[in-house]
């Protein structure tokens, strides 16, 4: 948080990278190779997700430890309440504390695969607010606590195609404020593709007295089907111009990727121009799009990017 606040004051944009635990040992080793390369560009921190339903608990703890102590990047670990009685939560927090990790993204979590509703486990927590309170009560100020924010409201609260009603949106914001008041000191947002929605969300947070930094979660479009799946799952609004840019190129993977880089670059430019100085990139464990966006923004040194990579400068929208 101190780094982010300093960046805002000094007008110096920062960036961070999010990864998820791969399914195989080989995948884990590949991820570390990629991460070492990406970390050489100087992210302010990197984070590792906690698999749905706690499915990757041991692996997430192990990867977080390697990130902090072997890759030597400031690490944030995600932690969810799904299938986690308090003893297991404490074990995870004690482990990362012993490993020198000081940043946690406190989440309720999604239901495990195959279930459609979150169910509070016996002896566990019902929501992220409870987890934030628990971490502050038990560990004092040791951890920097981040929470999730939803510029379009949480998808569970959204009915139909029109997005959240004003009442739902306002309740969601009020609940976010409770998470911050309970001890969270940073908000990272759910992915979005409409910058105006994000900027309004930041403004609305400020209006109700949320003063901590709000970091936009940016997911570069890598692949058309994946983009539809994620935006469908999160009930994200897709601006008409993005739909019409993607429609004619949807079967051309390289063109979609190049458009994703172009769009990501433009989104980040607008965000930075509006005074928000930290960009959180959902890398989906790939490096090309995230690095290309940062290069286009002038935030990383182009000369360090291997010349063999053909995607080096996809500044312009692809030809259709
Ligand atoms: P909460 O903040 O507890 O609540 C979600 C919503 O429910 C709130 O926005 C609010 O609308 C409502 N709500 C809950 N409690 C109350 C209350 N007491 N009063 C009023 N309203 C309430 N999932 C994973 O499994 N692993 C991950 O690593 C992971 N990382 C994520 C990272 C980010 C940046 C984001 C945005 C999401 C991530 N998720 C992850 C998904 C997340 O777990 C889901 O969105 C989950 O459904 C909600 O988690 P939460 O922490 O936002 O929940």
UniProtKB/TrEMBL annotation:
**CDD domains xref list:** MTHFR
Q: Keywords, A to Z?
A: FAD, Flavoprotein, NAD, Oxidoreductase
Which cofactors is this protein said to need? FAD
- Pathway terms, separated by semicolons: One-carbon metabolism; tetrahydrofolate interconversion
Which InterPro entries does the entry mention? FAD-linked_oxidoreductase-like (IPR029041), Fadh2_euk (IPR004621), Mehydrof_redctse-like (IPR003171)
Oxidoreductase found in the keyword field: yes
Q: Which Pfam families match?
A: MTHFR
A biological process (GO) annotation for this entry? Answer: methionine biosynthetic process
Query: Which molecular-function annotations from GO does this UniProt entry contain?
Result: FAD binding; methylenetetrahydrofolate reductase (NADH) activity
Identify the GO cellular component terms for this protein. Answer: cytosol
The protein's annotated catalytic reaction(s) are: (6S)-5-methyl-5,6,7,8-tetrahydrofolate + NAD(+) = (6R)-5,10-methylene-5,6,7,8-tetrahydrofolate + NADH + H(+)
Subunit composition and interactions: Homodimer.
State the function annotated in the UniProt record.
Answer: The probable reversibility of the MTHFR reaction in plants suggests that they can metabolize the methyl group of 5,10-methylenetetrahydrofolate to serine, sugars and starch.
Give the similarity note.
Belongs to the methylenetetrahydrofolate reductase family.
What is the protein named? Methylenetetrahydrofolate reductase
Q: Which organism is it from?
A: Acorus calamus (Sweet flag)
